[in-house]
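Exercise 4. Each item below gives a protein and its sequence. For each, produce the structure-token representation.

Item: AAA+ ATPase domain-containing protein (Bicosoecida sp. CB-2014).
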Amino acid sequence: GMWAANILKPALARGSLHCVGATTLKEYRQYVEKDAALARRFQPVFIPEPSEEDTVTILRGLKGKYEVHHGVRITDGALVAAAKMAQRYVPERNMPDKAIDLVDEAAARLRLQQDSKPEPIWRLERLLATRRIEIEALRRDTDEASLARREALEAEVAELDGEYKALTAEWEQERAALNAVKDGSAAIEAAKTELEKAQIDGNYERAGELLHSVLPALERKVNQAKAAERARKAEGEGSKSMLGESVTSRIVAEVVARATGIPVDNLLHGERAKLLNMEETLARRVVGQPEAISAVSDSVRLARAGLHSHKRPIGVFLFLGPTGVGKTELTKALAEFMFDDEAAMTRIDCSEYAERHNTSRLIGAPPGYVGYDEGGQLSDSVRRRPYQLVLFDEYEKAHRVMDQLLLQVFDEGSLTDAQGFKIDFRNTVIVLTSNVGSDVLAGLPEGIASNDPSVREQVMDRVRAAFPPEFLNRVDASVIFNRLGRDSMAGIVDVRLREVHALLREKDCTLKLGRDAREWLAV
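Answer:
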């Protein structure tokens, strides 16, 4: 505060005090810059945030300390992955702090996994306990069904118990080998520290003993333990190890996935095969809209291939068509496909934002207005879950000031809310649905498809009249949905019947539907 500044200023002016201070720009303006006499005594040096490459270099320098602290090995690939993922998926913090935290959490996660029972053994323990409780409960019953059930359970328990003992023995062997390597490595580090101290103190006899006797013996012991573990794994015909030995990019991705909700495979680019079959997956839920599915799939693949600006959302789509043709269903299917969860979606009903002043509810009320501290419907949702689909339903009903609000999102992939927080939209998919032009589609004579070039031009004329050009230019794809014919309705009936079958299966019931009934439902 001011008292500290008044104490420091005379000593700084005389040159009797040499001082290096560190502060943020905000606090510099608040506390130092206001006092011209104090500010004059310092030479400001602005330190920019380290780049991704600089962060990797910093992490490599810190790697040894974290390896010793957690007792695990950290691969270089994990450091590179931490820097990349921190830069892209943790926007609210700065480098290198956020990347260091990822490495720290990943190392702690691996250490906990090493000290705890592996998940396969834990699951078998729970299953065995459940089965044994059921067996004890059935001992009181003497009817044939209970006796048969008990015999089946006892046979299952015997089989599971054998599997449990084999897994436990394998885990204990792995843990013993890992602990031998870990203890040996810790002893080597301690010997190296003692060697440095002996050299500094001039105790050359002890230094020579450590350098030529103790350290080589410890290194031989560690190498023998590693060789024995490799031989044991080779005998196991390449069976997967239950204990991780080092922090890899996958463990870093698991930490990011837990914090952001992003599926691990998406972080590790393990979704290529999934993206190649995107049309087929979406078509299982959305019937009669092959052109719409193809347009959306192409745009998503383009973004995932890296041929898309990383500053923008993954995709921005405008779905056009009459009510009931599958616009919302395709949106839900897209959310489930992209984010492995249909609930990973924020729905904004634009009919609630028809008035200009209502749009403030999206990002929060301005300072001085009622509800300033409550946050916004859109900004709070994306801030809590930055990896999701945002649906603006019936967008044409919203006030046109919303166009200006979303331009920043479409262009820069970010939005500043009323409280000054920068919300990151780069990992979202944005879908706007609209009924604009649906009168053109509804009035089409039989035989003319919705994807006819002349029909599309008529619909887009209505769209261009409803929305400003700078808004439409930032939309990745304007998708016109087909009218549903009898064949499409039959497909929808099949989809809904599968859902009913799944519900009835839980109640041990079945539903059989004849061809006539199926056709009647499709009318």
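Check: The CA atoms of residues 200 and 207 lie 10 Å apart.
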